[in-house]
Specification:
Layout: E1 15-19, H1 25-35, H2 42-49, E2 54-61, E3 64-74, E4 77-85, H3 94-108, E5 113-119, H4 123-131, E6 135-144, E7 149-157
Parallel strand pairs: 4-5
Antiparallel strand pairs: 1-2, 2-3, 3-4, 5-7, 6-7
């Protein structure tokens, strides 16, 4: 243990989360298609940009858009409707960065609670959500398609 100079961290990815713009939509749609069996359409993402209750955010690193999140706001509540990281960028903490940014933004807006649905079999996502204080409050049978699977409804208080 010394007090000497330390070398720069190796493998640290510099990434920022920012509001999505129209030019980001093709990258968002590509990540969506690579991530989900029943992906949202490009039009769905495009339409989201026009709604004041939607928070469409991208996580961008030196290579471009590496992930995105979609939060729907209603009154004092919100729902994390969608979140994904490009498969080539996974396992590096970027999903956690996106989730943390969504939680921080919701708290700044004065929202009280965040909900989300997650595939019952998605253990990695469930671990991430649990690490951020989400807990199960419900179950939707056969909610997901391609493949058909149940969803767990998770909740986190933001206060």
């Amino acid at each position: 243990m010394g007090g000497g100079a330390r070398s720069a961290a190796v493998g640290v990815v510099v990434a920022t989360v920012r509001p999505a713009v129209e030019a980001d939509l093709p990258a968002i749609a590509a990540i969506e298609s690579a991530s989900f069996g029943d992906p949202w359409s490009l039009k769905s993402f495009s339409d989201s940009l026009a709604h004041a209750f939607v928070r469409l955010r991208v996580l961008e690193d030196e290579a471009g858009v590496a992930g995105y999140s979609v939060v729907w706001v209603s009154g004092e509540e919100c729902e994390l409707a969608n979140i994904a990281v490009d498969p080539a960028h996974r396992r590096g903490g970027l999903g956690a960065r996106l989730l943390d940014a969504s939680l921080d933004e919701a708290r700044r807006e004065g929202l009280m609670v965040m909900f989300l649905e997650v595939r019952a079999s998605n253990d990695a996502a469930k671990r991430l959500y649990a690490s951020r204080g989400f807990h199960e409050v419900g179950h939707r049978r056969d909610y997901y398609k391609n493949p058909v699977e149940d969803a767990l409804i998770l909740r986190r208080d933001l206060t």
